[in-house]
Design brief:
Rossmann fold; alpha/beta; 21% strand; single chain; seven-stranded mixed beta sheet
């Protein structure tokens, strides 16, 4: 009888191909139910003493849109000619940017015309629909707090609408002097001094 020498490859092949008797197999525990925690979107607030649109917010919106996330950016009091809900700016495939159709700079001391008031309220109705639709992964709302400060939209209504958002929706609010009720429900609050 001759002895045969096996190479490491032959040994591995032999070990894999030879069946192990069921009495020698170790029993592997099976997992019948794996609980996965639901994803909850992040709610961020960027508050400053002066109105400004933060570079890191724009960067995050562009980055997520480039990765395939549908993003909506809404500026309540920045606008111009041919702006508004009917004329959104589409940047790439996934980023929609809407600026109001208000043609002047608005401050807390500004007396809005009935047309301007209607434009802000229409934009808020649009935002509520966008938030509840579940169509977006990120919604950025710039100066929504000014609509509250000007008594155009109820603070309670804003808190309720944003609290009842779909689970996976990330929200970012930017603006000067953000109401405490909004910072209290936010996951992250950034206060800028300048």
């Amino acid at each position: 009888m001759s002895l045969q020498t096996l190479s490491p490859v032959d040994t591995a092949t032999t070990a894999i191909s030879s069946p192990t008797p069921s009495s020698q197999r170790k029993s592997t525990p099976t997992i019948s139910h794996l609980a996965i925690a639901p994803t909850r979107g992040i709610f961020k607030v960027f508050s400053t003493s002066q109105p400004s649109f933060h570079l890191e917010v724009i960067t995050q919106a562009l980055r997520l849109a480039s990765l395939g996330t549908k993003v909506l950016v809404v500026q309540f009091f920045q606008g111009g000619i041919n702006q508004g809900i009917e004329n959104p700016r589409i940047l790439g495939q996934n980023l929609t940017w809407i600026r109001n159709q208000i043609n002047r700079h608005i401050t807390p001391e500004t007396e809005l015309t009935p047309v301007e008031t209607e434009l802000v309220l229409r934009l808020w109705t649009f935002v509520q629909s966008a938030v509840s639709s579940g169509s977006y992964g990120l919604i950025v709302l710039d100066q929504l707090n000014l609509a509250i400060e000007l008594d155009l939209i109820s603070e309670t209504e804003v808190v309720e609408s944003l609290s009842d958002r779909p689970a996976a929706l990330d929200l970012i609010l930017t603006g000067a002097n953000m109401p405490v009720s909004l910072t209290e429900i936010a996951d992250q609050v950034t206060h800028r001094r300048n």
